[in-house]
Amino acid sequence: xxxxxxxxxxxxxxxRAWAMGPDGVQAETSAALGMGQLAPADFEPxxxxxxxxxxGAAAMPVIACGxxxxxxxxxxxxxxxxxxxxxxAGQLIAVPTxxxxxxxxxxxxxxxxxxxxxxxxxxxxxxxxxTLLRDFDGILCLPGTHSKWVxxxxxEVVSFQSFMTGEIFALLRQHSVLRHGIAEGWNDAAFDAALxxxxxxxxxxxxxxxxxxxxxxxxxxSPELAFARLSGLLIGIELAAAKPYWLGQRVxxxxxxxxxxxxARALAAQGxxxxxxxxxxxxxxxxxxxxxxx
Amino acid sequence: xxxxxxxxxxxxxxxRAWAMGPDGVQAETSAALGMGQLAPADFEPxxxxxxxxxxGAAAMPVIACGxxxxxxxxxxxxxxxxxxxxxxAGQLIAVPTxxxxxxxxxxxxxxxxxxxxxxxxxxxxxxxxxTLLRDFDGILCLPGTHSKWVxxxxxEVVSFQSFMTGEIFALLRQHSVLRHGIAEGWNDAAFDAALxxxxxxxxxxxxxxxxxxxxxxxxxxSPELAFARLSGLLIGIELAAAKPYWLGQRVxxxxxxxxxxxxARALAAQGxxxxxxxxxxxxxxxxxxxxxxx
Lengths: 294, 294
Hints:
Two copies of one chain form a homodimer.
Chain A: E1 5-10, E2 15-21, E3 24-31, H1 43-51, E4 60-65, E5 80-81, E6 93-95, E7 102-106, E8 110-112, E9 117-119, H2 122-133, E10 138-142, E11 147-153, E12 156-163, H3 165-175, H4 188-200, H5 205-219, H6 223-246, E13 251-255, H7 257-269, E14 275-278, H8 279-292
Parallel strand pairs in A: 1-4, 4-7, 5-8, 10-13, 13-14
Antiparallel strand pairs in A: 1-2, 2-3, 6-7, 8-9, 10-11, 11-12
Helix pairs in contact in A: 2-8, 3-6, 4-6, 5-6, 6-7
């Protein structure tokens, strides 16, 4: 049985595709082939390598979001300026392909002029979240490599702000002097204390980071505690800066559980009761919405 | 002509040695061989490979500072606890060697219990600076991979604090998404504006970093301006946190000119008139002092 259409989430590092039928997902597949590894001419063969078994004689609609539409991606899908609906009718970008069985459309990212900011991929998750939540007005938070805080009202993205939290966490953990004393692990009390320190004195971040190293040398700080504290420090300064977004607001987190869980804990400590939506569910809802708007 | 002794600065990445005679430096040599590349058994051959031409029949005093004395270095020179003189009589650590022509002594690093902090190598520069400045009471700032702010009084290090500023700068510039839009360069106005932003709203750092990326995409921010702004942002949050050290104090910077110059500009913008000492001159003065205290 062939799908009605194919949903694609194509980021910097990964390509994921879903065969979509009348009742939703029929099959899924993925590969570690992202914009970071591919030249423009490599995208079509990479996609065909994954989805060929799902193709028939007729042209198959493929709706894709993410860095695939960046200037260094397959084909540039220009940013749309906020305020605007996250995904809008008539705005998908057609990609020329060699194989006539493919009919590829890209979802554009969003841009904001002041302060300058951009997103690609998250706009689709936001559109999906608005479909799932119905009549949502409030704040969406999408933790990740470049976390996004998004103010949504009347079906439009009003404003948003990105934070390099996830990328800084990965760089410090893998490439800095802290790597000698950090290992995946968790400790609620260590996370909470670091979060509170960072929220109250965010400017001390570069010193508190070094003290993870010093405590590891002088006090045998456990690598798992260091992991939780690093997470608390970096989420803490993000929350300190994003306060105008979340203070007194309804906040919905969108992401994988292990990404959302420390943010939910951190927001709960500020008296909020954030809801959580699964990132993949939002992506698929958003791509389905985009297809419907073609 | 053989030297009286040999001064060695041996860090994570580099080994530098100076042949010292009655009138100071007779010759110098260096190699990109630091603690990061060497196992304990590699240190003696690495040193001999550089300084063998300076050795005679008699045992040659070699005074070394830096990561060579770390637990992962040649031979551990335990940290001394502040408050204490940066280098003190009877505190040098003798290193066992196979070659009888070597008589190696290491300068210990310093540690602080609360907040936990450590230094290795800087204590020697501090000792040298105190020799050069005479009766100095005040604040020393040593910009670098892990910048140090040091309160000195009555010949002792009273307290100090380290910041990961230099390491974070290098990671962001070389490994993060910002690498696409940053190139070595300078712009005073861009540095000053970023410095001021970071000093007044330090918690926004992770968002302001991402806006370098967004402005590069949306407004063709020049890579040289981005470099100066990144420097201003990171030095700005360091100054915000180190304010209890520098506010109303006499500050002396120790470092290479290209490292000290943005710190001097940043401190001048806060109304200070920092002096600057050359890092190598301080290291050599400190090692000479250590030799005299043997």
